[in-house]
TrEMBL record:
Record-annotated membrane-spanning stretches: none
Domain Novel STAND NTPase stretches: 204-246
Pfam families recorded: nSTAND1 (PF20703)
InterPro entries per the UniProt record, alphabetical: Adaptor_Cbl_N_dom_sf (IPR036537), MLKL-like_MCAfunc (IPR059179), nSTAND1 (IPR049052), P-loop_NTPase (IPR027417), TPR-like_helical_dom_sf (IPR011990)
Annotated region (Disordered), positions in chain: 1-29
UniProt-listed CDD domains: MLKL_NTD
Residue ranges with Basic residues bias: 1-12
Name of the molecule in the record: Novel STAND NTPase 1 domain-containing protein
PANTHER family assigned: HTH-TYPE TRANSCRIPTIONAL REGULATOR RV0890C-RELATED, REGULATOR-RELATED
Compositionally biased residues, Basic and acidic residues: 20-29
Length: 969
C-alpha cells in the first residue's frame, strides 16, 4: 500500500504570533523530508522483495540506494521531494506491471521499457554516489548547485516514466488491460487493442543503392528525420524499406519499426481522421475517443521508434481544411517525441514545417544497377548479343527505376527478342511502359496520380501547357529566362515552382527538366504544343541569334547555355513551320556561325540542311546554310564533312550566279587540303578556278582572296620565287596587310635576311588592330616569335607567345591551346622539361571539350608532348606519343603532321642504334614529302616550332646517304 504523505493546515497568524525565521522554516521542512525518505525507502524495499522479475528488483534496489544516499549527502533535502515522488511512482508501476510477469516477457516491450528505466536510475545513482565519495566537507554544497542537479535528474525520470507507463497501459507483451492500473489519465483506456505489426521486408529487386542506403541509415540511427523526395517510380518506398531493414536500424529500433503507407488515397478527400486511422493501423492499434494523437503519441513515447510515412504527398496535398490545418502540426509533434525518428517519402516538397528534415532527392540508378534490374527480369537467350543496344536503351530511359522495370516486364511477358524490343520502343516509346494497371504497373497511371494532385489541378491548363513546352525543349526550360521565353504565362515562375515541388520536374544547371520517360509520356499523351508558346519561344531565340556578335557577350552566353534548345527550335521550324521558313533559313546559318564561334560541336541540323528541297527560292538559302555548316565542321577538323558541305554549297551558289560565295567555298576546300599538307592539290584547285568562267565575275577583293590562299600553298612547295609570293594580293585594300605579313614570313622561312624580316614584321605590327579582327596581329606576333626562337632568343619567344595566349583567352580556346603548346616547346628548348610538361598539361585541361572535338588541336598537343619527351631523352615515351599521333594523322588524312611524327620515330630508332628501322621511318617521311610537294630539306621551313633539335641528325644523314645508312638504303 502506498504510504500517505502528511499534510498540515497552515496556522493563521495572529498579530502577536512571531513569524519563524527562514532557518527555522528550512529545518522543519528538512525534518519532514527526512521522514518521507524513510517511508519511501521502506516501501520500495518491501516491493523489491515482492516483484518476480530480477531486472525490476535491481531497479528498485537502485532507487532505494538513491534515497538512502540522499539522506546523508543532499543538504537541502526538501528540494529532493520531486525525486522522492518519482521514485514512489516507479515503485507503484513496477509492482503492478510485473505482478504476473515472467522472464519470457522481457523479450518484448516490457524488457525494453525496464532497460530504459534501469539506465536512467543507474545514471542518477552514480551521480548521487559521487557526492558521497567527495567527503563530508562537500556536504555544504551550494543550494543552487544541488537544485540544478536535482532538476536534471527529475527531467531524466520525466522522460522515462511516461514511456514505461505507456508500455504497461496498452498491455504490451504481457497483455494487461490498461484500466486495471487505475491511473487517473484515462486517455490510455481508449486504446482498445495493440497488435505489433511486422515491418515490410527489404525489396528483392533492389540494386545499386548501397552507398545511399548506408548514408541514410547512418542519419536515421543518429536520430535525424529524413525526407526522401522524387518523381513517381524513383524507388523512394523501396529505399525506405531497405533502410528499416538495415542491421543498425534493426538493432536500434528492434520491432518498433513502423511503415505507414498513404497509398491509394485521394488527396482531395483525405481528412485528419483518415491520416490518424492509417497511422494507428500501422502501429497495430485501434483508436477510440476524441483525441487520437494522444493515443498514437502514447505508443510512440513508450520507446525509441522508427516511423516511415510513405506516399506522404497524399496528405501533404490534402485540400480539406481540417487536414491542412491539423496534419502538419501533428507530424511536427510526433517528430518532437524523444526517440522517434521519421522517414518521409513524397513526390512533394511541401513537407511538414517545424521539423528539421534532412531532404534527399532520390537520383536515378547507375548504369550497372539499371542493367542488373533489367536483366533480372528480362532473360532472353540473345541478350548478350544486344548488350550495347540495351545499355543505350536504358540510358534513353535515364535509368528511371519504374520505367526499367516496366520495360523489362513488357519484353519478358511478350517474349520480345532484343531486336523486337528496340523496335517497339522506337515506335511507341511511353506506350510500351503501360503493360498493366496501377501506379506500379503503368507509367501512365503513376503520371496521372501526380497530375491529379490538387496543387497541379489548381494550375489549370497552364500547368499542362508548361509541361508540354518543357518536354518539347531538349534541355528543358531555362529557369532564368522563363518569363522572357513565355510572356503569355505571367505566372510561369510560380508554375515551375509547383511542378518542382510535386517532383514532376527537377532543376539542374539553371534548367527546369523532365526525366526522359516522363518527357515521352508528356509528348505522347498530353495536349498538343501551344502555338502561342511556340511562337514566343521562336521569337525570343531568333532575336538572340540575330543579335549575337563575334565577341562573347550576353547574347553569346544565352546561345552557349541554350544551344540545344535553339538548335531544336530551328530544326522544328525548318521541318514543320513553313510560314516562317525564310526567316528560319536566315537564323539557321547565323546559328551555325554562332556555334563555330562560341561552341564548336557537331549539329543535328546537318541532315536537315542537306535535305532542304531545292527550288528557285531555296537554293541560295540552302547554299548559305551549307557554307556555314562547312565552316563549323572545318573548325572541328571533321574535314570530310566540311569538304562535302563546301562543295555542295559551291554548286548551289553557281546555279544562282552567286560567284562571290562560290569563290569562298572553293577557297575553303583548297585550304582544307593545305591544312592536311596536300599542298599540290590545294594549288590545283585554286589555279583551276582562276581559269573558270566564274573568275571574270569576281570582285577584285575576291580575286585577291583567292590569290592570297593560293600563295600560302605555294609557300610550302617552293614552286615560285619567294619575291613573287603575296605580291598580287598585297595590292588589295582588304588583303594587303595580311599579304605583306606573309610576304616577310615567307622570306624568313626560305633563307631571307632574318634581321630585315624581323624589322618589317615589327613595323607591320603597329598597323594591326588591337581589337576586333585579331588575326593579322596574330600572324605578325607568331612570325616574330618564330624568328626569336630560331635566333636563340628564347625568353623573347616565350614573351611573345604569352602575348598571343593572353590575346585569345576568353575568345578562341583553340588559339590559347595552340600557343600554350608552343610555349612548352620553347621551355623544352630551354631544357626546363618539367615546365614544358606542365604547360602541355595546362594546354589541354581548360579546353577538354574543344580538344575532343578538334582533331587538329589533339595532333598539335600530342606532337608537342612527343617533342618534349624526345628532347628530355625519354625515348620510349616519345616513341609512344609519336605513334599515338600518327594514328590520329591517319584518321584525319594529315600528311604534314604524319611526316613530322614518322621522322620523330626515325630519330628514336637512330638514337637507339636501330639503323634499319630508322632508315625505314625516314624513307616513309621522304615519300610523304613527295606526296605533299615539299622538298625534304624544307620539311620544317614554314613551321620552325615543329622542328627537332639539331642534335637529332639521323634525318639529315639519311638524306645525304651518309654514315650508318650507307648499307641499309
Amino acid at each position: 500500500m502506498k504510504p500517505k504523505t502528511r499534510s498540515s493546515k497552515k496556522a493563521k497568524n495572529g498579530p502577536n504570533v512571531k513569524e519563524p525565521s527562514s532557518e527555522t522554516k528550512e529545518s522543519l521542512q528538512d525534518d519532514d523530508a527526512m521522514r518521507l525518505l524513510d517511508v519511501a525507502i521502506t516501501a520500495i524495499n518491501i516491493t523489491k522483495d515482492l516483484v518476480p522479475i530480477d531486472l525490476a528488483k535491481g531497479i528498485l534496489g537502485t532507487v532505494a540506494n538513491i534515497l538512502i544516499i540522499a539522506q546523508s549527502v543532499i543538504k537541502n533535502q526538501s528540494d529532493f521531494q520531486a525525486i522522492v515522488d518519482k521514485c514512489e511512482t516507479i515503485r507503484e508501476i513496477l509492482e503492478r506491471a510485473t505482478k504476473h510477469a515472467t522472464d519470457d516477457d522481457l523479450r518484448g516491450y516490457l524488457g525494453h521499457a525496464l532497460s530504459q528505466l534501469n539506465k536512467s536510475v543507474n545514471r542518477i545513482n552514480s551521480e548521487v554516489a559521487s557526492k558521497k565519495e567527495q567527503g563530508f566537507w562537500q556536504r555544504l554544497l551550494s543550494v543552487t548547485s544541488d537544485r540544478d542537479r536535482i532538476a536534471g535528474w527529475e527531467k531524466d525520470l520525466d522522460r522515462v516514466i511516461p514511456l514505461f507507463s505507456a508500455e504497461v497501459l496498452v498491455g504490451l507483451t504481457i497483455g494487461m488491460n490498461a484500466r486495471t492500473l487505475g491511473l487517473k489519465d484515462n486517455v490510455h483506456g481508449n486504446v482498445e487493442r495493440y497488435h505489433p505489426p511486422v515491418p515490410p521486408s527489404r525489396p528483392s529487386m533492389f540494386y545499386g543503392r548501397e552507398d545511399l542506403v548506408a548514408e541514410l541509415t547512418n542519419l536515421v540511427v543518429n536520430d535525424e528525420h529524413i525526407a526522401l523526395i522524387g518523381l513517381g517510380g524513383m524507388g523512394k518506398s523501396s529505399l525506405a524499406k531497405a533502410i528499416i531493414n538495415e542491421p543498425s536500424a534493426m538493432e536500434k529500433f528492434a520491432d518498433r519499426r513502423f511503415f505507414v503507407t498513404y497509398d491509394g488515397l485521394d488527396p482531395s478527400t483525405i481528412t485528419f481522421e483518415t491520416f490518424t486511422t492509417r497511422f494507428a493501423g500501422a502501429l497495430g492499434i485501434e483508436l477510440a475517443g476524441a483525441d487520437p494523437m494522444r493515443q498514437i503519441s502514447a505508443i510512440l513515447r513508450s520507446a525509441s521508434a522508427l516511423v516511415v510515412l510513405d506516399n506522404a504527398e497524399t496528405f501533404e496535398e490534402a485540400s480539406g481544411s481540417s487536414a491542412l490545418g491539423e496534419i502538419p502540426p501533428a507530424i511536427a509533434d510526433i517528430a518532437n517525441i524523444p526517440g522517434v525518428v521519421l522517414i518521409l517519402t513524397s513526390r512533394s516538397r511541401r513537407n511538414a514545417p517545424n521539423v528539421r528534415w534532412i531532404t534527399k532527392d532520390i537520383p536515378p540508378l547507375e548504369l550497372g544497377a539499371a542493367q542488373a534490374v533489367f536483366f533480372q527480369i528480362y532473360q532472353h537467350a540473345n541478350c548478350s548479343d544486344a548488350g550495347e543496344d540495351i545499355r543505350n536503351l536504358l540510358k534513353e530511359l535515364e535509368f528511371h527505376p519504374l520505367s526499367i522495370n516496366l520495360l523489362a516486364n513488357a519484353a519478358q511477358q511478350n517474349d520480345w527478342s532484343p531486336t523486337t524490343l528496340l523496335k517497339r520502343w522506337n515506335n511507341r516509346h511511353s506506350k510500351v511502359l503501360d503493360p498493366g494497371k496501377g501506379k506500379l504497373q503503368s507509367l501512365s497511371d503513376t503520371m496521372q496520380l501526380s497530375l491529379s494532385s490538387p496543387s497541379i489541378q489548381d494550375l489549370g491548363d497552364d500547368g499542362r501547357r508548361l509541361l508540354t513546352i518543357i518536354a518539347f525543349l531538349p534541355q528543358g526550360l531555362n529557369d532564368t529566362l522563363a518569363s522572357d521565353l513565355l510572356p503569355s504565362l505571367p505566372q510561369v515562375d510560380i508554375i515551375c515552382d509547383v511542378l518542382c515541388r510535386q517532383s514532376l520536374v527537377y532543376r539542374q544547371d539553371s534548367f527546369i527538366k523532365l526525366l526522359a520517360p516522363i518527357r515521352y509520356y508528356v509528348r505522347d499523351s498530353l495536349q498538343a504544343l501551344d502555338s502561342t508558346c511556340l511562337r514566343e519561344i521562336r521569337h525570343f531565340y531568333y532575336r538572340i541569334v540575330d543579335c549575337c556578335l563575334e565577341e562573347h557577350d550576353h547574347y553569346a552566353d544565352i546561345i552557349t547555355s541554350d544551344h540545344l534548345n535553339i538548335e531544336h527550335v530551328v530544326a522544328f521550324n525548318l521541318a514543320y513551320v513553313p510560314d516562317v521558313i525564310e526567316e528560319t533559313y536566315d537564323i539557321c546559318w547565323q546559328f551555325l556561325w554562332c556555334l563555330q564561334r562560341h561552341l564548336p560541336r557537331p549539329t543535328i541540323l546537318t541532315p536537315i540542311v542537306f535535305k532542304i528541297i531545292e527550288n528557285s527560292s531555296t537554293r541560295g538559302p540552302k547554299a548559305c546554310c551549307l557554307q556555314y555548316l562547312g565552316a563549323l565542321y572545318t573548325t572541328l577538323t571533321q574535314l570530310t564533312e566540311g569538304m562535302k558541305a563546301f562543295k555542295t554549297a559551291k554548286a548551289l551558289y553557281l546555279t544562282v550566279d552567286d560567284h562571290e560565295n562560290a569563290a569562298h567555298c572553293i577557297v575553303q576546300c583548297a585550304d582544307i587540303y593545305r591544312c592536311q599538307g596536300r599542298f599540290i592539290q590545294s594549288q590545283q584547285v585554286l589555279e583551276a578556278f582562276q581559269h573558270a568562267d566564274s573568275w571574270t565575275f569576281l570582285s577584285e577583293a575576291s580575286k585577291a582572296y583567292v590569290l592570297y590562299f593560293s600563295d600560302k600553298a605555294r609557300m610550302y612547295t617552293l614552286t615560285a620565287f619567294m619575291d613573287e609570293l603575296f605580291v598580287k594580293s598585297g595590292e588589295d585594300r582588304d588583303w594587303g596587310l595580311p599579304s605583306k605579313i606573309w610576304y616577310w614570313r615567307a622570306k624568313f622561312y626560305h633563307g631571307g635576311d632574318i634581321v630585315q624580316a624581323n624589322a618589317h614584321l615589327e613595323d607591320l605590327l603597329s598597323q594591326c588592330p588591337s581589337t576586333g579582327d585579331l588575326f593579322s596581329r596574330r600572324d605578325v606576333l607568331e612570325g616574330l616569335a618564330q624568328i626569336a626562337f630560331c635566333e636563340g632568343r628564347l625568353s623573347d619567344a616565350m614573351d611573345i607567345l604569352h602575348q598571343l595566349v593572353e590575346m585569345f583567352e576568353g575568345q578562341y580556346s583553340d588559339g590559347v591551346l595552340w600557343y600554350t603548346v608552343q610555349k612548352a616547346i620553347v621551355a623544352s628548348k630551354q631544357e626546363n622539361h618539367d615546365l614544358a610538361r606542365e604547360l602541355i598539361h595546362k594546354a589541354s585541361e581548360p579546353f577538354q571539350f574543344f580538344a575532343l572535338c578538334n582533331a587538329r588541336a589533339f595532333l598539335h598537343r600530342s606532337y608537342g608532348s612527343a617533342l618534349i619527351e624526345l628532347a628530355a631523352g625519354e625515348y620510349d615515351k616519345a616513341a609512344s606519343q609519336f605513334t599515338a599521333t600518327i594514328e590520329g594523322c591517319n584518321m584525319q588524312g594529315n600528311l604534314h603532321a604524319e611526316a613530322f611524327n614518322i621522322r620523330g620515330l626515325g630519330e628514336v630508332a637512330f638514337v637507339q642504334g636501330d639503323f634499319v628501322l630508322a632508315a625505314q621511318r625516314f624513307a616513309e617521311t621522304r615519300s610523304l614529302c613527295v606526296e605533299m610537294g615539299v622538298p625534304p630539306y624544307h620539311l620544317y621551313s614554314c613551321l620552325p616550332f615543329h622542328a627537332l633539335s639539331s642534335r637529332f641528325e639521323g634525318w639529315g644523314l639519311f638524306l645525304e646517304g651518309r654514315s650508318s645508312f650507307t648499307n641499309v638504303m
